[in-house]
Amino acid sequence: MFTDELMLGNPVAVVHDADGLSTERMAAFARWTNLSETTFLLPPTDASADYRLRIFTPVRELPFAGHPTLGTARAWLEAGGIPARGAELVQECAAGLVRVRRDGLRLAFAAPPVLRDGPVDDAELEEVLRALRLAAGDVLAARWADNGPGWVALLLSDADTVLRLEPDRSAFGALDKVGVVGAYPAGSDIAFEVRAFVPRVGLGEDPVTGSLNASIAQWLIPAGLAPERYTAAQGTRLGRRGRIHVERLGTDIWVGGDTVLGVSGTVAL
Predict the structure, then answer these.
(1) pTM exceeds 0.85 for this model
(2) Furthest-apart CA pair in the chain: how many Å?
(3) Within 10 A of 185 (CB to CB), how many other CB atoms are there?
(4) Which residues are annotated as catalytic?
(5) What is the DSSP letter of 226?
(6) Counting beta carbons within 10 angstroms of the beta carbon of residue 163, is it exposed (0 to 12), middle (13 to 18) or buried (19 or more)?
(7) 26-37 burial code (b ≥16 CB/10 A, e <16)
(8) Which residues contact 21 (CB under 8 A, 6 or more apart)?
(9) Are 194 and 207 in contact (CB under 8 A)?
(10) Per-10-residue mean pLDDT for the chain, 269 residues long?
């Protein structure tokens, strides 16, 4: 996901025809793949949805995540799925219904509502700064940006500061899903650099993160800190060259990227 070249971006494993699997079996397979997320396609329970999915990290189930949403949509379409509404399909997940639109091999989801926003208190911010090895002066703003996974987001002074971060993974406490964003100079093709730190998931850093980019856009665009249409980079330090395309249309913020089908086959679950 979020790439047009295999082995870049962020992979997701999608299991079709998963309605016979128990939660325990799904969780066990997600631990085994050890990807940031593994999803399971199921028949919808809401008549307005085209399909339903469940999303697992190696350690827990998520109500919503961005790159699994787009990767699952691509896999569903590749398997012959036909959206009931033409160019737009509707995904059912634990967070509710999520709209996904398609334009060739590029897919985008309408960002779901933020579940928690507002400022991060001083004690929480101090904890995050310690884990990121940042000085308070490096941070322009910090706030909750949680649309399901539990993100805290920090706007840093610039993209270079984002790229230089060397967090202390052992220092993360309860706030263990931290996103950082910093702007590139005006006129750059890429507007922002984004990184996502998830030490308890086992990955340390997520390569490219749709949910985080969605909640960052829901923060920065209305605040006048980002244009209504921009491209963000993520995964640069990991050699993944992710590209996330964001735009606001009316009241919706759409988060999208290119998709590549890399591996297909049968799994004996």
Answers:
(1) yes
(2) 53
(3) 8
(4) 37
(5) S
(6) middle
(7) bbebbeebebbb
(8) 15, 40, 269
(9) no
(10) 96 97 98 95 97 95 95 96 92 96 90 93 94 96 92 97 95 92 97 94 87 97 97 98 97 96 94
